[in-house]
């Protein structure tokens, strides 16, 4: 596995794990009227599942849009959006094509969130 692919997978896994770990700490359970421990687990599962599904759907919509999705680093490196669109797919890197695609990263991160959801669901139920 080359460096860009490792960075792609590590960042997707890090974001998914970090988000799932942050939900029980940072979610305002009191504002939604859930204070009991069983309700907190249900809300935690619901938030992780919903975030994963939304990421998958948004990423799939970007993939179906026909254009290669640009990331912030693509635009910053190119200097403008139009130059970034012109450069899309012309990099001479030997990395797999998916590592420079924000839409694929969004789908993968959402899928990892769903895996975390199912692991939590089996653990908490």
Give the total of domains. Answer: 1
What share of residues is helical? Answer: over 70%
Largest β sheet strand count, sense and barrel closure: none
Backbone shape: elongated
**Cα-atom radius of gyration:** 18 Å
Count helical runs: 5
Keywords: Membrane, Transmembrane, Transmembrane helix
Transmembrane segments: 6-31, 43-64, 102-124
Walkthrough of the structure:
This protein has helices spanning 3-26, 37-64, 72-78, 81-87, 102-124. It is 71% helix and 0% strand. The longest helix has 28 residues, at 37-64. It has one domain (3-22, 35-124). The chain contains five helices and no strands. The protein starts with a helix and ends with a helix. α1 (3-26) packs antiparallel against α2 (37-64) and α3 crosses α4 (81-87). The chain crosses the membrane at residues 6-31, 43-64, 102-124. Keywords: Membrane, Transmembrane, Transmembrane helix.
List the helices and strands and how they pair.
Layout: H1 3-26, H2 37-64, H3 72-78, H4 81-87, H5 102-124
Keywords: Membrane, Transmembrane, Transmembrane helix
Transmembrane segments: 6-31, 43-64, 102-124
What can be said about this structure in brief?
Helix 2 runs antiparallel to helix 5 (102-124). The protein has one domain (3-22, 35-124). The chain has helices at residues 3-26, 37-64, 72-78, 81-87, 102-124.
Task: Sum up the structure in keywords.
elongated, transmembrane helix, 5 helices, 125 residues, transmembrane, mainly alpha, membrane
């Amino acid at each position: 596995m080359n460096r860009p692919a490792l960075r792609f997978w590590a960042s997707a896994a890090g974001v998914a794990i970090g988000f799932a770990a942050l939900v029980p700490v940072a979610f305002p359970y009191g504002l939604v009227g859930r204070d009991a421990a069983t309700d907190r687990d249900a809300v935690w599962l619901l938030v992780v599942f919903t975030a994963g599904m939304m990421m998958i759907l948004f990423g799939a919509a970007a993939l179906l849009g026909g254009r290669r999705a640009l990331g912030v680093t693509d635009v910053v490196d190119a200097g403008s959006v139009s130059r970034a669109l012109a450069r899309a797919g012309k990099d001479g890197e030997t990395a797999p094509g998916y590592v420079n695609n924000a839409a694929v990263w969004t789908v993968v991160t959402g899928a990892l969130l769903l895996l975390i959801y199912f692991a939590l669901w089996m653990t908490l139920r």
